[in-house]
Amino acid sequence: MARATARYYGGRDPFGRAGDFTTAPEISQSFGECLGLWAAVCWQMMGAPDPVLLVELGPGRGTLMADALRAIREVIPAFAAAARLQLVETSPTLRAAQRRSLGAAAADTCWHDGIDTLPPGPAILLANEFLDALPIRQFERAGGRWRERWVEDGRFLLRDAEDAPPEDASLPDGTVQERCEPALAITAALARRLAGEGGVALFIDYGTAQGGTGDSLQAVRRHAPVDPLRDPGEADLTAHVDFAAVAHAAAAAGAATHGPLSQGMFLRRIGIGQRAAMLAQANPRQGAAHMAALHRLTASEAMGELFQVLAISHPGFPLPPGFANA
């Protein structure tokens, strides 16, 4: 999965109608604008450090960050002046798209292949649909024990694995359990950094709040599901994020965790409904489209319940906006 994912993202722009899938920033500008203002409020809660790193993992076309910066400059320009933009992106194609989206801001932006080269200092980090694209391992119960799924010649095989999940005799054969070790490693590394240098990170992705079992590996090409084992590197491979495991990794590394809570609840709490209404009022011809986008992002039958939101922060950081009673 790791090699197929690297090949897939390495030389294409997969977003939007002409690509394979559409993410929240491409659905509505209000998504990125509200996240930008969320980051600005967090900066104020940190004591307004200057400079501060504003980081995005997997920035796509740069749409989210461009929308966020526009809102930040308009509402809290001091944060825009203090922010040092850092984008973690390995794809040359997507880096070029991000430069186009950011315009003049690209001149002061630093790109990174991974989080290990981020400069020191307090940071505010955004990651929308980043963790789901990281490679997973799958284990299947067979003959009353766990065995690891392995891909060979375009099909799944089973093999013994020393680091299989703990035995659970209550689970029937055929049960699948997934583990995303890169997601846990990245989360733990960020948690150690935030605990040591200050700041907060926000993860938004589709997944489960409580973990569990099940096969969530899926592939999408041209907005339709396809066989994940067919044509490696030609489709978007993803799996649901186990937010309980991610939160546990962050807490074990010394950070505070907040959530997860549903995307719909989080976005409504930080004001996306009011922002969508403002956009609709300012441009009545596009009013229905703005409200339809709001519904898609927040409704329980759309993305509102499927997507979860988790924040991790320095242990002394106050409760982040949107997470009251989470």
UniProtKB/TrEMBL annotation:
The keyword Amino-acid biosynthesis does not apply. Keywords: Methyltransferase, Transferase. GO terms for biological process: methylation. InterPro entries: NDUFAF7, NDUFAF7_sf, SAM-dependent_MTases_sf. The keyword Iron does not apply. SUPFAM superfamilies: S-adenosyl-L-methionine-dependent methyltransferases. One of its GO terms (molecular function) is methyltransferase activity. This is Class I SAM-dependent methyltransferase.
